[in-house]
Design goal:
The chain is globular and about 40 Å long. It has one domain. The chain has a four-stranded mixed β-sheet, with helices on both faces. It has 130 residues and is of the alpha+beta class. The mean pLDDT is 87. The chain is built from five helices and four strands. This is DCC family thiol-disulfide oxidoreductase YuxK.
Length: 130
């Protein structure tokens, strides 16, 4: 099974993050689903994700990763130099999550909110679950 990134489809920063992942994952290992989509909601329920969690998540090897753990694990699937960030997982998660939480809390204010999810180009569309 491919790793799946669940992202906020209304967030410009999250959309930019998905585009970044696509550009740095040329083998197409990572797949995507919007948190707002039906499949995103089904995946959240199947993984027993608490309702208050609205950050980018990664489902990998049937485990769910949140916040900085998700971001760093995503990096482990990307090309160098991004995969070299994964060893930062040894840092205590409260410290890792300080920066993540600051951006997540202000993502709409700083980057704006979209009316709908992006429509990926045909060559990328198969990586988006529906």
């Amino acid at each position: 099974m491919h790793p799946i990134v669940l992202f906020d489809g209304e967030c410009h920063f999250c959309d930019a993050s998905v585009q970044f992942i696509i550009q740095n994952d040329p083998e197409g290992k990572i797949h995507f689903a919007s948190l707002q989509s039906d499949i995103g909601q089904k995946l959240l329920k199947a993984q027993d994700v608490p309702a208050h969690i609205d950050s980018m998540m990664l489902i990998d090897e049937n485990k769910v990763y949140y916040k900085s753990a998700a971001a760093l694990r995503i990096c482990s699937h990307l090309n160098a130099p991004w995969k070299w960030l994964y060893p930062l997982m040894v840092a205590p998660y409260p410290i890792r999550n300080l920066f993540y939480d600051l951006i997540a809390k202000n993502r709409y204010k700083w980057f704006g909110k979209k009316e709908s999810c992006m429509l990926p180009p045909p060559d990328i569309r198969a990586r988006f679950l529906s």
